[in-house]
Amino acid sequence: CDAPCHCGIIPAMYTLLFVDDHPLYREGMRRALTDAMPELRIVLASGTVSALEVLAAEPDIDLCLSDFQLPDGDGLMLLGHVARQHPTVARGLLCGAPDPAMARQATVLGCVACLSKDRDIASLGEALRKLFDGGSVYDVEPAAVMAVVALSDKRKEILRLAAKGLSNKEISALLGISERTVKDHWSYIFEQMGVSNRTEAVSQALRERLL
């Protein structure tokens, strides 16, 4: 109904696509947010494929908010697809344990939010209202997006060789340094980029087109 003054129903002002693979949590979130924000219309999806199908069918979605862990990819991968296929839709993460590296990747994708599931409904509602007003909300501070740029040429070369699939032993032979030195370089790279292993470091550098 579009006449709140006659029937007491507030027409939806915003539409949220909420993507999460847990049906009970998904439905519980829909009910709680609908009660807290009568002006909000919520559409649900369980993963990447279903979310993209919803976006193709629903032209009026304002915000896509996704969990990070999905059954057919991850939330950042989904939000990258949304950015390319539906650039007018705002994007964000709502996940159990957001960290600075995840927040950094979200900023690279142009996301407006990286929220924690630890928020209660009232707090989440406040964040959503800020997002719908054109703001951004990050529950963790993003690590430096371009941290890899500050790496030395040798450390960048180690990243490039690792991206080609070379082992530490092969990298040490090509660069004329010991394998122990290669490992020491990796320790610095991990610290500088805010990651915990070489797979994450290479993935981030490739994703940010820095190699």
Strand and helix layout:
Layout: H1 4-7, E1 14-19, H2 23-36, E2 40-45, H3 48-57, E3 63-66, E4 69-70, E5 73-74, H4 75-85, E6 90-95, H5 100-108, E7 113-116, H6 121-132, E8 137-138, H7 153-163, H8 168-175, H9 179-193, H10 198-207
Parallel strand pairs: 1-2, 1-3, 3-6, 6-7, 7-8
Antiparallel strand pairs: 4-5
Folded structure, characterized:
The protein is of the alpha/beta class. The protein has 10 helices and 8 strands. It has helices at 4-7, 23-36, 48-57, 75-85, 100-108, 121-132, 153-163, 168-175, 179-193, 198-207; strands at 14-19, 40-45, 63-66, 69-70, 73-74, 90-95, 113-116, 137-138.
End-to-end gap: 54 Å
State the share of residues found in helices, binned by percent. Answer: 40-55%
What sequence of helices (H) and strands (E) makes up the elements? HEHEHEEEHEHEHEHHHH
Given the helix and strand composition, which structural class is it? alpha/beta
- Indicate the mean pLDDT: 87
Number of separate helices: 10
Give the spatial strand order of the biggest sheet: 2-1-3-6-7-8
For this entry, what is the oligomeric state of its chains?
single chain
Alpha-carbon Rg, integer:
21 Å
Low-pLDDT segments, ≥5 res: 1-6
Give a short account of the largest sheet.
6 strands, parallel
Strand content: 15-25%
Count of extended strands: 8
- Give the overall form: elongated
Brief summary of the model shown:
This protein is of the alpha/beta class.
Task: Give short descriptive properties of this protein.
elongated, disordered N terminus, single chain, 49% helix, 211 residues, six-stranded parallel sheet, alpha/beta, 10 helices, two-stranded antiparallel ribbon
